[in-house]
User: Fold this.
Amino acid sequence: MDVDAYTLTHRAGWTRLDQLSKRRRLSGSEVDELITLYRRSSQQLARIRTHEADPDMIAGLSSILTRARGRVLRAQGSIWSDIGRFFTHQLPAELYRTRVWWLSVMAVCLLIALGIGITVDNSPGARRYFGVHNAQAYTERGGLFESYYSDHTHSSFAAQVWTNNALVAAIALFTGILIVPAAYSLWQNSENLGIAGGAMAHADRLDSFFGFILPHGMLEMTCIFVAGGVGLKLGWTLIDPGRETRADALARQGRATGMVAVGLAIALFVSGLIEGFVTPSGFPVAVRIGIGFVAWALFMSYALLLGRSAAHELDAELSAPAPLSEPTPRIVG
Assistant:
């Protein structure tokens, strides 16, 4: 089968399905048309999956079918069910589907931070260049690095951290369409992390560095990497929309980016609480790092394990539409 020709032939039906699923109210004939188009498009998606179709095109059609299915099957008063489905299926599935992008960003950024840290630790010229050639007040015990986490009340510091991190993540997420601003934001974060680590290493204070960075930093930095990766995917979609039109591809990826933004806001709130209440606490270092690791592991499990299951479940639902003989479902309109 010629996938491009098949897509061109049926794109009008998919566009019509997308239009109907977005309307607030439907007439009786439009209800029948929506159900017919949904079943037909589901069968077409199942056929496309058996060929080497563009993954982004499949994702775009899957997104249309997901929205249409919700319109067909959703009963009145099920808003809480919709919210639950968003957090148990749609959000983790999107995190899983974009994993190659944000895991790659994570690897590159950590390598950059490590390289800068090693250079700062071992090179006087690098310390002068980065402005840390005389950093005793910053690196000494009880100095600026450590006092940063205890100079404010826990609640106000947590709120300040959440606001700052949300802004950084938003810049990486939504400027990704321009690629350069998102890449620059990620570079700055990696550079700052490397400079701080290198300065503390040169002062033989790595124990303090990891003791204060890791509790909140594992989850916080992962959220920023996710934002950067998903943002860059949005930018790449503008460059290479695949077999979709550029407008359709951007609309699909834009919706996915919005979903990820909601999830990251919640994860960064948790990270802010850890940074405000756990990092500067009197708990032993192992306990503080352990709390941070649990939060990070839960996020990674949510994105990769639950996300994998959710993505496969959504794909299975879309590939197996209800039979034509079933009773006509109620339509919310």
User: Anything to note?
Assistant: The CA atoms of residues 162 and 272 lie 5 Å apart.
